[in-house]
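FW: tagging you since you asked about this chain on Friday. Here's the raw sequence from the shared folder, copied in full. Didn't touch anything.
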Amino acid sequence: MNHARRRSRLCAPGLALFACAVAWAPAALAREPIVTRFDIPDNRIAITFDACATKTQGYGFDRQVYRILQRERVPATIFVSGRWVDFHPGVMTELAADPLIEFGNHSYDHPHMSRLANHDMELEVDETEAALGRYGKRGVAFRPPFGDFNARMLDVVRDRGLPVVSWDVVSGDPAAATTTEGMIREVERHTRSGSIVIFHINGRGHKTAEALPRILRELRERGFSFVHLSELLGGGAPAPSLPATPAVVAPPAAIAPTYVAPPAVVAPVATTPAVVAPPPFVPAPPVHRRSTARVPAPARAADAGAQPTVLESAGHAPTAAEMRLAAEGAKHAPGARP
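HL: got it, structure written out here
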C-alpha cells in the first residue's frame, strides 16, 4: 500500500474529527524546541501520565491513581498510545468526559521512533490522533516513547502542528526497584516553577498510588498549583536549553480545548483564529492496524554524525536515571528544522 493510500485510510468517514491533523496545525509550533520545562515565575506545574501499550501488551488502567486525581481535583495530561486507547474503550469514554483530563499523543504502539522510516513515523502519530478522534479528542502534544527522537521525527511531528514534550521531573514509577519514599523524594527535590512531572497510569507505576497523595499535598504546601499541560503550552515560554540560546517565543495562542460535558463526547474548541471547528463526532468501527513490518529509516544529512537520543535500548521499564538522561538529551535537541 503506497503512502497516499495509507493516508486516505486515516481520513476515512468516521474519523472526520482527526481530519488530517495538518489542516489545523498552528504554524507557530513548527519551529519550537522539545519542551522539558516552562520558564514561568508563578509556580504552575503540569502533572502528566503515560498510558503506554505495545504490539504485544495492552496493559491496564490504574484506577486508584485516577481516583486520587478526582479526589484532589488535579488537572492531568495523559499521554496515550493509540493501541492503549483501542484496548480500553470503556475507560476512554470515562476519561474523555472528565474535564480534569486532557490527552497527549504517545505514538500508536510505543516504538523507538528514530528507528522508523518517515511514513511509519507519520502513521504512529496519525493513527493515535484518529483513535483519540473517536472520543472527540485530539492530542495537545507529542511525547516520544522512551524519550527517543531524532531530527526526522521532530520534522514529522511538527508538520502535524504538535509540540514535542518530554519532562524534567522523573517519578521513576515504572522501575520495579522504586520505593514510595524514593518517588516522593525525587519529585519534591526536582520540581520547580514550570516543571513537567511524569508518572504512569497504565498499571506500570509500581508505587504511584501510594506516593501520589503525599506528593500532591507537599507540592501544594510549597505553593505549587497544578494545571493542564496545554495551559502552559499556551502561556509559558519553554525554558531555554543552553545559555547561548535566545529565548524561545511561546506560541501565540493556547491550544487547550475547552471541554463541555456530555458524558460521551465533547467537541474541542478551535485553538487559533485560523482553525475551523471539526465536524460532529461520528462513531466508527476500529481502524484496522497496518502491517507491523518496518521499513529501515533512510539516512539523512541532518542525522549524519549525530546519534539519536534514546532513553533505553530495550524493555519497557526505564529507571529514573535513564529518564533523567533522556530529559537532558531533549534539552539539546535542535530548535528548528534544518
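FW: DSSP finds ten helices and eight strands in the chain.
HL: agreed, and The chain has one domain: 35-240+286-331.
FW: great, closing this out.
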